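cron nightly-structures :: item 1 of 1
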Amino acid sequence: MTVTPEERDAMLRLRNIMEGNNTPAARTSTASIVESAGTVELAGPGQVTNADISAMANVLQRLNSISNNVVDDMITESVGDIKSADALMTEKISNGIKVGRYQILTKEDPYRIAGKQFYSIYNSLTNNTIADDITLYETAISVVRLLNSGKFTNDTTVRKLFELDDSYTSHKVDAITYKRRINSSKDQVKKDIYESRLQASMDRCMFAKKALNSLSKQCL
């Protein structure tokens, strides 16, 4: 923003007057004698002219315009940039986080085989549950980012994230189940079978997580 010498003098005069300091007369080139609507103003020390007030008003108006433009630019940028939107809208709550219109709540169940900690997604505006029993945090945050960007729950990527989380959870439960059977069985033949199935379940579990992490990166 460019401030003219006249506007700078006007601001300096007004500040000095408000602070009770001696004020120099306005520049002859701008307001020693000011004609406004047919009226002549003599600008002496300690006096505020209409020209001074008008100059200050112009500066303030331009400052306000610049401030509004900066805010508008931030809002516009955040709509197209999910990372910026998250930074502007993410807040910590007692049992999770709130990101935009949605909450990711952390829950616990000591009897849950896939892990006692899991996540749920809620719509903060409607209190509707979007998803429950999510095993991986990566799934929850990726889905919330997509929903805040305008996607719906039936979007292909959202559904794929849920499917991969379900697959990871299912194979993890299988792996834990076979591990328990190995420890409890005394039959070596059965143990060998369980170990084979355990390894297969672990492989599928890691494959699902790898695919989910890859898809999650596309949501950043």
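cron nightly-structures :: done
The two ends are 36 Å apart (CA to CA).
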